[in-house]
Amino acid sequence: MPDLEALIQRWQTGDERAAEALYNQFREQTLRLAYGLLGDPAEAEEAAQDALAYALAHIGRFDASRASFNTWLHTITVSRCRDRQRRRRLPTTPLFTWLESGGDMADPHPGPEHCTDRTETRNQVWRAVQSLSPTLREAIGLRYWADHTFREMSAILGCSVSTAQSRVRLAYERLRAQLTPNDLAAFEEEHVT
Questions:
Q1: Separation of alpha carbons 113 and 116, rounded Å
Q2: How many Å apart are CA 183 and CA 141, to the nearest integer?
Q3: How far is CA 30 from CA 119, 126, 177, in A?
């Protein structure tokens, strides 16, 4: 597979196969981030599609000297998710519904008790994440589900690195106050960066 810079240059000159390769390379992580922020599979799919379509249609606006392509794309994704959240104030679907439908890399033959315990833990973690303010939820989503560094987060969120760090710390403290030690351990185990 060609390197990212070559793909971007090829797409900027009109090579549609390069656009398809960029789409395929970033689709899953864009969808994961959108789902982490929105909590609804259909909404996340639409937001991710919208973000990718916008990025590919406006590839001429990408400036590698200002941010990596990944950071630029995730900035667009966060913006699209914020727009959707402003338009709707509906209850969310648990993040872990997606994981249960194939996104989870757990043992393919766990016992029923393990599955029930794991589902309940995931639901408790998801409810705690959803109780966070939108800015803290974005910080946790970018850090734990999209694996961004604090510097990348600051570029995406339009804040300083120290503010990004503070938001993650505050979000984590609020999660720690709401979750049992076992639930918090499960969250940390699944989201080691």
A1: 5
A2: 17
A3: 24, 19, 29
Instruction: Mention every residue, 6+ apart, whose C-beta is less than 8 A from residue 33.
Output: 48, 74, 77, 78, 81, 141, 142, 145, 146
Distance CA 160, CA 142 (A): 15
How much is the pLDDT for 26?
Answer: 94
Residue 135 Cα to chain centre, angstroms: 13
71 and 152 Cβ atoms separated by less than 8 Å:
yes
- Residue 160 vs residues 81, 136, 165, 180: alpha-carbon distances, Å: 21, 15, 9, 31
- 147 is written with which tokens? 């694996």
pTM, two decimal places: 0.57
With b meaning 16 or more CB within 10 Å and e meaning fewer, what string describes 101-136? eeeeeeeeeeeeeeeeebeebbebbbebbeebeeeb
Which pLDDT score is estimated for 108? 44
Determine the distance from the C-alpha atom of residue 31 to the mean position of all C-alpha atoms in its chain, rounded to a whole number.
7
Residue 126: name the closest of 86, 179, 185, 169 by CA: 179
How many CA atoms lie within 13 Å of 70's alpha carbon, on the beta-carbon side? Answer: 14
